[in-house]
Every structure is written in C-alpha cells, then in structure tokens.
Amino acid sequence: RFGRSASLHMLETRLTARDQQLNYERDLPEVDGKRDLEAFRAKLNDPSRKMMGPGQVEWLGRELAASVKAGRTWQVIGNEVLMAKIKVPDLQAALGARYAELLAAEPEAGKGRAKRYAAQAAFGAVYGLDMWDGYPAERERVFATFRATGARPIVLAGDSHCFWANELYDSSGAHVAVEFGTTGITSPGGGDYFTTIPVGAAFEQANPEVVFNDQKAKGFVLLTLTKAEAKAEMVAVSTILRKDFTASPVKTLTVTPLARGVSKLAVA
Questions:
Q1: Would you list the DSSP string of 8-62?
Q2: Which pTM value belongs to this model?
Q3: What burial class does residue 267 get, using C-beta atoms within 10 Å of its C-beta: 0-12 exposed, 13-18 middle, 19+ buried?
Q4: What is the pLDDT of residues 46-104, one digit of tens each?
Q5: Which of 162, 264, 159, 155 is nearest to 203 (CA)?
Q6: What is the DSSP string of 198-237?
C-alpha cells in the first residue's frame, strides 16, 4: 500500500492454477488445407479453463474492494503476461503498396516471420495463446471483479519483450482498465526479426485496444503514481551491447482518474 495513492496486487499466473496453454500446431492443425476453427474456438472459450483459479480471483476481489474502500486512487495489478486482446496483424493489409518492397528488403528471418504472420492473420489468430488471450473466460472473470469492486486498475505486464500501452475492455465493450507492457532487457521482441517492416505500427492498426506498441526498443517502464494522475514513461537504452549507454523515453503516457472505476489514457 502506497499511502492514499495506490495499492499493488501481485498475481501468480504461471504455476499454481494455470491450465495447459493451447498451441496452434497441436490444437489447430491444418488437415488437407483446412483447419477446424469451430473446435479450436470451443477449446479456447471453454469456461472451465483457468489462469489464476477461483481462490486467487476471490482474493483479488477482496483486496481491490479494500483498496477502493480505503480511498486509494489506483489499484496496480502486477501480472506476468498481457491482458489486452491482441490479434496477429495482416502486414500486407497494414502496409498496402509498400508491403512487397519492404518484404523484399527483409533478411530471411523477417521473411519467415512475415509468412507466419500472414498464415495466422488469415484465420484471425491471437498473438499469444500463452497470454490472457489464451484464457478469455478467466479474463472475463477478472474483468467482472474489476467492475464489481469499482477499482481503477492499472495492469502491468512483461514477457512479450515489447513496449505496449493498451486500453482493456470486457466482452460487453465496457472499459475496465489500462495496461502497460514493458519490453525485455536483452531478449528479442517480434520487431527484432524485421529490419524494414514497422511491425509495431501494424499491431496498433490491427487492434483497437492497442494504443502504442514498440517491438524493438529495450529498457523499462517507469510508472509514477499520484492521486492526480499516473504517468508511464517507456524508457529505452541506446544499446545493449556496451556498458556505456544512454536512456531516454520513447513514449510517455498519462492516465487520469475520472469517476470511480473509470480512467482515461492519453499520449503525453
């Protein structure tokens, strides 16, 4: 608990309750040129699939309610993976006439990645089955907890090795939280496989919940919380190959508290 400004709630989504992640190769194989999308979606949306489990969801609800009752402005959710709904972008649709030229300039790693994106975008694949997109029913249970408690959540996430600023909406279209994803320290992000294709911009264009995405920068998110606002600075280092480096913000975003349970995200 940080005075009247914020409370921090750390989730465990890796070991204790999580059901096995789905996998496109295993759970959505292509047979004679066709994929059984209906069967895959039934698996994906199975309401019994768990990411946190009922005990932890109930605990989170109690903690959020206590934070709101204590008058704290922000309820910060420390969480391993992205909660936003993120689909693989159709790079050709995003780039239009530039696509062929940019693709031709890519190394083999970039061409291979672009080919995989094209195949997945064709059937509406989500970006990460290992993320909350792989557990949509459990995500709705968490979102319902956000709403029921009147919390004003700021979700923090890692694991994708990219910078993200996302607006989170439940299945009814109601705004429930904002999310900041931090990049890796040295691990490659999706953009590191490309040299010319602006893949971060393609993710922004393809996904209504994605406000900002940088798939190349390495660094950290500095989150400053006051009762008046939350400021997220996405700080990148100039190099990860030498000990002498500079650090500078690549994007700054602010979140303003409105009514209880409501906030507004803006690019500063």
A1: EEE---SSSSPPPPP-HHHHS-EETTEE-HHHHHHHHT-TT--SS-HHHHHHHHH
A2: 0.95
A3: exposed
A4: 999 999 999 999 999 999 999 999 999 999 999 999 999 999 999 999 999 999 999 99
A5: 162
A6: -HHHHHHHH-TTEEEEESS--EEEEEEE-SS-EEEEEEEE
